[in-house]
Specification:
single chain, 232 residues, alpha+beta, Porin, 2 domains, 8-stranded antiparallel β-barrel, 3 helices, 20% helix, 46% strand, disordered N terminus
Length: 232
């Protein structure tokens, strides 16, 4: 039910962006309009219960580039985000049980009637996300700029642990997956050279889904674009 709601939100966002784009002449959209006009540094968190198998609340760190507007009202922002967490004991135990069953099936029980025992110890799992967001913006009360959009990303997932390093288990945990996201947020211009921003996003890959809430400070290299609020 919750996943269907997020898909619906993504479709609404996409249709809104498409409608805005359709209202403009295609000639207004050109990569020549893009140029680096700011860089932001951010921190955030992911509620661990949204990510199957990982423990507790997860911190994230990241950075983004502001490339300006591809066309009227459509801003492009590449970003990179990193988070890491320890796998829950229950998830590690599940992996150990599967390995014990695999070994027993292939070579038979050894050492005791209970069969082989596998101890994987502590395993950490991290995600390096490289993506590009496209979002529209509009003025909000009290000088805030609201944004809503979609993004595409690549998730480089890495599993590590003393007992699993350089084994096929690490190979199973180490994967590269494409993903998409729907995001919304608020931005506030502090001075001509900086702005605060807050974004909430829902990331989706083939078998990984999670919320990420992040906030940061963006350093600006140029002035505001038409439709953006000037700093007070």
């Amino acid at each position: 039910m919750r996943g269907a709601a997020m898909v619906l939100m993504a479709l609404v966002a996409a249709s809104g962006m498409a409608a805005r784009a359709a209202a403009q002449d295609l000639a207004d959209f050109d990569y020549e309009h893009l140029s680096l006009r700011g860089i932001g540094f951010e921190a955030g968190y992911l509620p661990g219960y949204r990510i199957h198998g990982v423990r507790g609340e997860i911190r994230s760190l990241g950075a983004r580039l502001d490339l300006g507007y591809l066309g009227p009202g459509l801003r492009i922002a590449p970003s990179v985000t990193y988070w890491s967490s320890e796998l829950e004991a229950e998830e590690v135990s599940r992996l150990e049980t599967r390995l014990e069953q695999l070994i027993a099936r292939e070579v038979g029980p050894s050492g005791s009637e209970a069969g082989p025992e596998v101890d994987l110890g502590r395993i950490t799992w991290s995600d390096l996300v490289v993506g590009v967001d496209a979002h529209g913006g509009g003025d909000s009360p009290f000088g805030w700029l609201s944004v809503l959009g979609l993004g595409a990303s690549v998730h480089v997932l890495d599993g590590q642990g003393e007992a699993v390093d350089d084994t096929f288990i690490e190979d199973l945990l180490d994967t590269v997956r494409p993903g998409v996201n729907v995001h919304l947020g608020l931005e506030y211009p502090l001075w001509s050279w900086s702005r605060l921003y807050w974004h909430g996003r829902y990331e989706v890959t083939d078998d990984l889904r999670y919320f990420n809430v992040r906030g940061g400070l963006q350093l600006m290299f140029g002035g505001t674009a038409p439709g953006e609020m000037e700093p007070r």
